[in-house]
């Protein structure tokens, strides 16, 4: 399991989502931009023009590079674009949670947690 | 014995799965409400105005943060919580975080001490059982610093002084989702992962025990034939 050093400084939630999802969550006060010159944001707004590589880079930054993120929220339809990364991600910190978006309601078939459940029961 | 262990673990796992599904449904409901309210706010907004990323404050600071409950032992899975952080406490922790990234030495030690004090204060606030006279003094210390500026950190202010009601409703729903549902969901996910590991271990143990029993049966059978 994780050691104390792994989770002590993980105090931010990060979001990868469409504009409405990110706006909604930022309204709760989870948005954070670090001081310049870095000015790293803890969110990524994804639209039709955003390339998969950019989403993957943001996911990698939130899960591997940054040590201050505790929870990563990602829209399920965006998680689908980097499904291989999500399904192979097994670290305890930060934890990844897929959330529904405005145009793509939650689909239990794609949920990585429920996929794990099916695997456990041998389906 | 092993069979019972596996069954017990699976029962525990199904309870967790039930809770996960329930929380999922609640999160879906809240998210749907947020999107609906945002759409209403955008519909009623002035022409050309959209409540979105163009109006985000580029110097935003998180007022709701994750706290991972300390693990009593390494075999126990973590519990997540999202708590509201004071503007002043926020400034203190931010300094500490930045310093820990860029510099080392005495400043780091001082700031870390301050952070620890503030964490203690938070605990005291949550408990509300112990006297807070000493921590109140400590609380005033960062406030007295001349460099600390008190700002309104409400994200609603990014969108203007007078914000429409649907946007405020969206914020209330979002706060509920972030404070109540998301931490519970991720905690349950962590717990489920832990139980999955235990189930696999118990199954392996059971398979080994069965193999050993079969072997001994075979051995006794051969012995009887030989006799």
From TrEMBL, chain A:
Q: How does it sit in the membrane?
A: Peripheral membrane protein
The cellular location(s) given in this protein's UniProt record come to: Vacuole membrane
Chief localization: membrane
Q: Does the keyword Cell membrane apply?
A: no
Tell me a Gene Ontology molecular-function term this record carries. proton-transporting ATPase activity, rotational mechanism
Q: Which domain of life is it from?
A: Eukaryota
> Any keyword Chaperone?
no
Write out the entry's keywords from A to Z: Hydrogen ion transport, Ion transport, Membrane, Transport, Vacuole
A matching Pfam family: ATP-synt_F
Q: Which SUPFAM superfamilies match?
A: AtpF-like
InterPro entries listed in its UniProt record = ATPase_V1-cplx_f_g_su, ATPase_V1-cplx_fsu_euk, ATPase_V1_fsu_sf
Gene Ontology cellular-component terms for this entry are:
fungal-type vacuole membrane; proton-transporting V-type ATPase, V1 domain
Q: What family does this belong to?
A: Belongs to the V-ATPase F subunit family.
As for what it does, the entry says:
Subunit of the V1 complex of vacuolar(H+)-ATPase (V-ATPase), a multisubunit enzyme composed of a peripheral complex (V1) that hydrolyzes ATP and a membrane integral complex (V0) that translocates protons. V-ATPase is responsible for acidifying and maintaining the pH of intracellular compartments.
Quaternary context: V-ATPase is a heteromultimeric enzyme composed of a peripheral catalytic V1 complex (components A to H) attached to an integral membrane V0 proton pore complex (components: a, c, c', c'', d, e, f and VOA1). V-ATPase is a heteromultimeric enzyme made up of two complexes: the ATP-hydrolytic V1 complex and the proton translocation V0 complex.
Designated name of the protein = V-type proton ATPase subunit F
Protein source organism: Apiospora kogelbergensis
Supply the source organism's classification.
Eukaryota, Fungi, Dikarya, Ascomycota, Pezizomycotina
From TrEMBL, chain B:
Highest taxon above the source species: Eukaryota
GO MF annotation list: unfolded protein binding
Q: What's the short name of a Pfam family annotated to this entry?
A: Vma22_CCDC115
Biological process (GO) annotations held by this record are: vacuolar proton-transporting V-type ATPase complex assembly
Q: Where does it sit, as one GO cellular component term?
A: Vma12-Vma22 assembly complex
Ranges where the record places region Disordered: 102-152, 205-227
Q: Specify residue ranges for compositional bias: Acidic residues.
A: 118-130
- Start-end of Basic and acidic residues biased regions: 208-221
Q: Could you identify this protein by its name?
A: Vacuolar ATPase assembly protein VMA22
Q: Which organism is it from?
A: Apiospora kogelbergensis
């Amino acid at each position: 399991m994780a050691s104390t050093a792994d989770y002590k400084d993980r105090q931010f939630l990060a979001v990868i989502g469409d504009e409405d999802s990110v706006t909604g969550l930022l309204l709760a006060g989870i948005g954070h931009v670090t001081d310049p010159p870095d000015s790293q944001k803890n969110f990524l707004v994804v639209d039709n023009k955003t390339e998969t590589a950019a989403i993957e880079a943001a996911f990698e930054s939130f899960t591997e590079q940054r040590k201050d993120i505790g929870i990563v929220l990602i829209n399920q339809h965006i998680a689908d674009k980097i499904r291989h990364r999500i399904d192979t991600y097994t670290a305890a910190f930060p934890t990844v949670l897929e959330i529904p978006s405005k145009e793509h309601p939650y689909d239990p078939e794609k949920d990585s947690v429920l996929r794990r459940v099916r695997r456990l029961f041998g389906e | 014995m092993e069979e019972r262990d596996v069954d017990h673990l699976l029962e525990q796992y199904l309870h967790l799965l039930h809770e996960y599904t329930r929380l999922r449904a609640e999160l879906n409901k809240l998210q749907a409400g947020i999107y609906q309210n945002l759409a209403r706010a955008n519909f009623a907004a002035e022409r050309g105005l959209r409540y979105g990323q163009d109006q985000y404050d580029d110097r935003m600071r998180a007022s709701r943060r994750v706290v991972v409950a300390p693990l009593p032992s390494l075999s126990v899975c973590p519990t997540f919580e999202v708590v509201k952080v004071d503007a002043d406490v926020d400034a203190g922790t931010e300094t500490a975080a930045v310093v820990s990234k860029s510099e080392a030495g005495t400043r780091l030690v001082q700031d870390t001490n301050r952070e620890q004090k503030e964490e203690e204060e938070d605990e005291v606030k949550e408990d509300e059982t112990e006297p807070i006279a000493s921590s109140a003094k400590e609380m005033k210390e960062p406030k007295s610093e001349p460099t600390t500026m008190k700002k309104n950190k409400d994200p609603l202010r990014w969108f203007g002084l007078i914000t429409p009601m649907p946007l405020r409703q969206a914020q209330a729903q979002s706060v509920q989702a972030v404070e109540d549902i998301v931490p519970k969901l991720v905690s349950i996910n962590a717990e489920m992962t832990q139980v999955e590991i235990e189930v696999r271990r118990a199954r392996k143990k059971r398979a080994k025990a069965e193999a050993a029993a079969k072997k001994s049966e075979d051995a006794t059978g051969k012995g009887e034939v030989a006799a």
